[in-house]
Amino acid sequence: MIENDLFDISNRLKEIDEGYFIVFNTNKNKYEVHNAFNKMGTFCFMVPYKHLDIRTYYYCLKTRIENSDKLIEEMNRKNKEKEKQNKKYFENEMKARAYDTRSIFMKEERM
What we know:
single chain; alpha+beta; coiled coil
């Protein structure tokens, strides 16, 4: 359990919710944020950063249940953007291959 850290993140998380606490998972070499008041186990999230810093605080705020609608909306928007990019990439790839194939057939017709 991490009770004191360089940037006082453990105490800053308690300002958001008194139940938050941080542990260091030695098996995974990662920090985890837990909440003692969760009904279905204490785990909230694994810190996606190597060190505890202000990003962890903001990540905690962002991932709170109160923000779930925003998070889902953001994920859907990003998925649509990615799908659009993939479709464009696929279309460009198909055009390039069709062009290459066309040029091969044109060479054969000239012979």
